[in-house]
Design a protein that fits this description.
This protein has 94 residues and is an all-alpha fold. The protein has helices spanning 16-34, 43-62, 67-74, 78-88. The chain is 62% helix and 0% strand.
Length: 94
């Protein structure tokens, strides 16, 4: 994947902020070109929710889906994390 350091290469990793900025700008341009987005006022809410879901799923995977550990990793209260998991419909292994 672009920006990640690969074994045997000297390429420096891309900063998270730079990578996010490039991907979000490209996504906004695609959505505007295709006309699939008519309400511009919700861009912040939509983007923040998507980023939060990705971060929560990554933290859960990193902690083997132990919610207390994931909450600690994210700096959240476990109950807050549990609510976000329900709100976003994030699936947990049984």
């Amino acid at each position: 994947m672009g920006g990640q350091k690969r074994e045997g290469t000297a390429a420096a990793p891309v900063a998270l902020g730079q990578a996010l900025e490039e991907h979000i700008a490209a996504w906004i341009n695609r959505v505007e070109r295709t006309g699939h987005w008519t309400r511009r006022s919700d861009i912040h809410q939509r983007l923040m929710a998507e980023v939060e879901k990705i971060v929560i799923r990554a933290a859960l995977a990193k902690t083997d889906f132990v919610q207390t550990a994931a909450a600690d990793f994210l700096g959240l209260n476990r109950n807050t994390l549990a609510k976000k998991i329900r709100t976003y419909g994030i699936s947990l292994p049984r």
